[in-house]
């Protein structure tokens, strides 16, 4: 694993609890940071891992694949080196800070090594059931996507957080990207958007912490998006799909189904979310599912659940939302 920041424990614990994957080592910007984190894993989680002193050492090792958890501004060189060494890469979202950079990174891996992206909400049971029941909805008429999250100012006081140079943006690229990716997996592509993105008075930060938008889908459905990290105390993201035969809501690990015939069903169970002041208030179970799927994809010679190419779709949507707000007009989503 390269990167020992906020999300590193989630990946480490997912590997610890997996029967398919073993975390053998960690690497960071400095060998001292990696050594400190390896010590923490041994002391607190009974995990014996080695320290890699450099990216070159990782590339030359016999590891089967590499998990990359660094901020997006550190990705390109890492992935280029790993791909050249034939090491499959599973990386945290976003792919990169812009659509063009994300495309370049994906191209580095194409035809060389598998590239997977951590959109763990796709691995949730409710998400899987929703994909199975899509045909029962009938034609989708309207879509409502919300992500009313909260972050304290202390979250954005971390150097680089919420900046374009390190993160590529604010709530869209760092938080709402998950619910947008999941929504696209249900609805198919968005054709045009008209968006309003701003930094609210709740935060001092460079990028946006509030976005609202109208969406027109290629299928003919219409939709809305509201995403925020200024919505105290924060609540779970939600996707509502209104179809010809039923309406469905996917939220916090549950699928709630309302048929036009008067029937109602609930699938799954409510789960913790990182929507409030503690961004890590969630289980590592979904990350474990994605990591195990990636390992199986390598051994079975198949694509992982979310490929780099698949991840470009949500990057194209975020790019369109950002352009629409900047230019104060409706814009088309770039086809990828």
Q: Approximately what portion of the residues adopt beta-strand conformation?
A: 15-25%
Helix-and-strand structural type: alpha/beta
Q: What is the mean predicted local confidence, pLDDT? A: 95
How many H/I helices?
10
Estimate the helix proportion, in percent.
25-40%
- What is the number of E strands? 14
Low-confidence segments, ≥5 residues, pLDDT <50?
A: none
Largest sheet: 9 strands, mixed
Distance between the termini: 29 Å
Strand order of the largest sheet: 13-12-11-10-6-9-8-7-14
Question: What radius of gyration results from the CA coordinates?
Answer: 20 Å
- What is the quaternary state of this protein? single chain
Shape: globular
Order of helices and strands: HEHEHEHEHEHEHHEEEEEEEHHE
Describe this structure in words.
With 336 residues, the chain is of the alpha/beta class. The chain is 36% helix and 22% strand. It contains ten helices and 14 strands. A nine-stranded mixed β-sheet has the order 13-12-11-10-6-9-8-7-14. Strands 3-4-5 form a three-stranded parallel β-sheet, with helices on both faces. Helix 1 crosses helix 9. It is globular, with a radius of gyration of 20 Å. It starts with 7 loop residues before the first helix and ends with a strand. 46% of the residues are buried. The model has no long low-confidence stretch (mean pLDDT 95).
